[in-house]
Design goal:
By secondary structure, this protein is mainly α. It is flat and about 90 Å long. The longest helix has 20 residues. The chain has 27 helices and no strands.
Length: 481
C-alpha cells in the first residue's frame, strides 16, 4: 500500500506526506541503545565529573550522533576502550556519513591487536573520505602487520599521491622489504637517512643494507637505530579526541603541550586540575605530589608563555608551601639562571642536591652553572658525579668535553667528544668539537672528516666556519714548523 502511494503522481500535498513518512522511517532506523554509562565511580573526580556531564548530555540528546561520538571519544582517550568501541558504533548508527566514528573505532581495534577487523572498519571510513592521507598510512601499516605487502604498498602509494612525505616513503620501503625487494627499498631509504634521525628508519635501512651484503654501511646505520620508538606521523583528526582527556592523563597532556610551545593550552588544563588538587594540598600530608606538580608545571608554562615574573612568583609560592619538594628548587634555579643570576641559581641547585644527592640531573645542572662561573675544575667534578649516577648521557659528556677545552686539556677533550658521538651518532655539534679537538692534536685530516660529518648532519654554519678557520690556522702553523 505504501509502495503504491509513493509511486503515484507527486502533488504538493503528496510530496509533503512522502517527506514526513521518510523522516519517520529514518528516525526509526537511527534509534540506538541508551548511552553506555561507565567510569563515573572513578576516584579521579576530574574524570568522573566530566563523564557524568557527557553521559547526561547523551541521554538528553539521544538521537545526536555528535553528542554520542563525544562520549565515545571521552571513553577512548581516557582508557575505557570497550565502552568506547560500543559507543562509536552507536554514533555511526546515528550518522553513517561521519568519517570519525569508524576511523576512531578502527584505531582502538588496532591498538588491541585486531588488525584484520581494524582494516575492515577503516575501509568504511575510507568510503566516506578517501582523501585523508593518515588513514592510508594506517591502512598500509596494518596491512603489513597482517602480512599483505602488496596491498600495503598500494596504500602507501596512495598516501604518496595525496600528500607524500617521509612517512609515506618509509612505508613504501617497508612494504618492498616485506616483498624481499631490498634494492628498491634501499633506493628510497638512502636519501631518507640523510634527512631523518629517526631510529626506526635507520634500523630498517641497516637491515636492508645487511640483506644486500653491504656490511659496513649496515653497521653504521644500525648504530643509529638502537631504540625501538616507532615512526609516527601527524594525524589532525585523531588528535581531535584529545580535548576530552581528563584526570591524571590530562596532566601528562598539559606537560606535552607546554613542551611543544602550546603553553597557553597547557595552563588552561593545569588551572582546571587545580580545582581538584588545590595549591594548599602541596603543603599537606595527602595529595602532595600532584598538587606540587601542578604548581611546578604552571611555573614552567608561565615562563614558556613569556611571563617569567609570573613563573617566579608561582614557584616561590610552591617553595613557601613545601620547601623540600626538589622540582621547585630545580625550576627556580633555571629561572634565576635565565636572568643571569648564576650565584643565586647555584644556591637552589645545591639545596636540591642536599635533599637528594643521588640524582644525576641536579649534579649536571650544578656543573653547567659552575661552567658559567668559569669554575671549570669544579664543573668537571660535578659532571663526573652526574655521569656516575646517570651514565651515558650525551650532554654530560659534551659539557665535560667543554671543561677540558677551557682548561686546554685536548687529549681529554677528544675522549669526551668521542664519547658524545658514540652515544649519539647524529649529534652535529659533537662532531664540530670533535673536529676542533682532533685539529689541536695535529690530526688535521681526521678533523676535516669530522667537520664534514658535522656539516652533513646539519651543524650550525657559524660553528662550522669558526672551526674551519681554526683548522686553517693549524695548517699554517704546522707548515711553518
Amino acid at each position: 500500500m505504501l509502495a503504491n502511494f509513493l509511486s503515484g503522481p507527486v502533488s504538493p500535498i503528496r510530496y509533503g506526506v512522502i517527506v514526513a513518512v521518510l523522516i519517520l522511517l529514518c528516525s526509526a532506523c537511527s534509534k540506538v541503545d541508551d548511552p553506555i554509562a561507565v567510569g563515573t565511580d572513578s576516584p579521579d573526580r576530574d574524570l568522573a565529573d566530566y563523564l557524568e556531564e557527557m553521559i547526561k548530555s547523551a541521554r538528553a540528546m539521544d538521537e545526536s550522533a555528535l553528542v554520542r561520538g563525544r562520549l565515545a571519544m571521552t571513553y577512548d582517550v581516557n582508557g575505557l576502550r570497550e565502552a568506547a568501541l560500543a559507543t562509536y558504533a552507536q554514533a555511526e548508527a546515528l550518522d553513517p556519513s561521519d568519517f570519525r566514528w569508524p576511523y576512531y573505532r578502527a584505531q582502538i581495534l588496532a591498538e588491541m591487536g585486531d588488525h584484520a577487523l581494524a582494516l575492515a572498519v577503516l575501509d568504511r571510513a575510507l568510503t566516506i573520505d578517501g582523501d585523508y592521507t593518515s588513514a592510508w598510512l594506517w591502512r598500509g601499516s596494518w596491512l603489513l602487520k597482517t602480512e599483505q605487502p602488496d596491498d600495503a604498498l598500494n596504500a602507501f602509494k596512495r598516501a604518496t599521491e595525496l600528500e607524500g612525505g617521509l612517512s609515506a616513503d618509509f612505508g613504501r620501503a617497508q612494504a618492498l622489504i616485506a616483498k624481499e625487494q631490498h634494492a628498491q627499498a634501499i633506493e628510497i631509504l638512502e636519501p631518507l637517512s640523510k634527512i631523518s634521525t629517526h631510529p626506526q628508519l635507520h634500523r630498517t635501512y641497516g637491515e636492508a643494507l645487511r640483506s644486500m651484503g653491504r656490511t659496513e654501511e649496515a653497521r653504521q646505520a644500525l648504530a643509529k637505530g638502537k631504540t625501538t620508538e616507532p615512526l609516527t606521523w601527524p594525524d589532525k583528526r585523531r588528535d581531535q579526541r584529545n580535548v576530552h582527556i581528563r584526570g591524571h592523563a590530562s596532566f601528562q597532556l598539559a606537560q606535552t603541550l607546554s613542551a611543544s610551545g602550546r603553553a597557553d593550552e597547557a595552563l588552561t588544563i593545569l588551572k582546571r586540575l587545580q580545582t581538584y588538587h588545590p595549591e594548599l594540598l602541596c603543603g599537606g600530608e595527602e595529595g602532595v605530589v600532584l598538587a606540587c606538580n601542578l604548581i611546578n608545571s604552571s611555573s614552567i608554562a608561565f615562563d614558556r608563555s613569556g611571563l617569567p615574573q609570573r613563573a617566579l612568583e608561582t614557584v616561590q609560592r610552591g617553595l613557601d608551601l613545601n620547601e623540600e619538594y626538589i622540582p621547585f628548587h630545580l625550576t627556580i634555579a633555571t629561572l634565576y639562571r635565565q636572568r643571569g643570576d648564576i650565584n643565586r641559581a647555584l644556591t637552589y641547585i645545591d639545596r636540591a642536591i642536599e635533599l637528594n644527592p643521588a640524582r644525576g640531573y641536579a649534579h649536571e645542572q650544578r656543573g653547567r652553572l659552575l661552567f658559567g662561573l668559569m669554575r671549570y675544575d669544579d664543573a668537571k667534578t660535578a659532571f663526573e658525579t652526574a655521569l656516575r649516577l646517570e651514565p651515558e648521557k650525551r650532554m654530560t659528556f659534551f659539557y665535560l668535553g667543554l671543561t677540558e677545552v677551557e682548561s686546554g686539556r685536548w687529549p681529554d677533550a677528544l675522549g669526551r667528544f668521542q664519547d658524545v658521538v658514540r652515544v649519539d651518532p647524529d649529534f652535529a655539534l659533537g662532531y664540530v668539537f670533535l673536529a676542533r679537538s682532533l685539529g689541536e692534536l695535529d690530526r688535521v685530516t681526521d678533523a676535516h672528516q669530522a667537520l664534514r660529518d658535522a656539516t652533513h648532519l646539519g651543524a650550525d654554519p657559524r660553528e662550522v666556519r669558526a672551526t674551519e678557520r681554526r683548522l686553517r690556522e693549524l695548517d699554517v702553523r704546522d707548515n711553518r714548523k
